[in-house]
Amino acid sequence: MIEKMAAPKGNKFALGLTTSGRPPNYDDPEKLRNKCEEYFLYCIENKEKITITGLALYLGFNSRDTIYEYQKKKEFSDIIKRAMLVVENRYEEQTERNPAGAIFVLKNMGWKDKTESDVNHSGSIIVKPPRDVD
Questions:
Q1: Which of 103, 72, 76 is nearest to 88 (CA)?
Q2: How far apart are CA 21 and CA 15, in angstroms?
Q3: What is the mean pLDDT of residues 18-30?
Q4: Structural Rg of the chain based on CA atoms
Q5: pLDDT grade, residue 129 (50/70/90)?
């Protein structure tokens, strides 16, 4: 069955292709920046909430993960970081009106509402037996 699924021997279907898979939605950083700004303006003008999933949908992505994949690309990294900062800022502003929901989202964005302590000791610790006291 596998033999039937494979391409015919000697095929040249992929000849000349430099990449495989689906072409990217954005190959120009400026187009991505403009589309992000367009989304933010749309939300403000229509009194819509600015969200990560809303941004992903507006950009034509099928998943939030695609935003994070673009952030890994050098030419798109700063654009996505700034867009995420705008989203985060909107959630910060909402903490007065709806603290529980905003706190939930901010925690998912890496915020913490607890103090963490990292205690390291580089020297040695000597434990002596207790002295007899008579």
A1: 103
A2: 14
A3: 77
A4: 26
A5: confident
pTM: 0.62
Q: Which of 87, 67, 65, 76 is nearest to 33 (CA)?
A: 76
- pLDDT per residue as tens digits for the range 39-95: 999 999 999 999 999 999 999 999 999 999 999 999 999 999 999 999 989 888 877
Please answer whether residues 50 and 43 qualify as being in contact, where contact means their C-beta atoms are separated by less than 8 angstroms. Answer: yes
Instruction: Please work out, in degrees rounded to the nearest 5, the angle formed at the alpha carbon of residue 110 by the alpha carbons of 43 and 85.
Output: 35
Distance CA 65, CA 50 (A): 17
For 55, half-sphere exposure in the C-beta direction (CA atoms, 13 angstrom radius) is 28
Distance CA 68, CA 92 (A): 21
The answer, yes or no, to whether residue 108 has pLDDT greater than 80, is no
pLDDT at residue 100 above 90? no
* CA nearest to 93, candidates 104, 84, 101, 102: 102
Q: Which amino acid is at 1?
A: M
Q: In angstroms, rounded to a whole number, what is the distance separating the alpha carbons of residues 133 and 65?
A: 66
Q: Are 36 and 79 in contact (CB under 8 A)?
A: yes
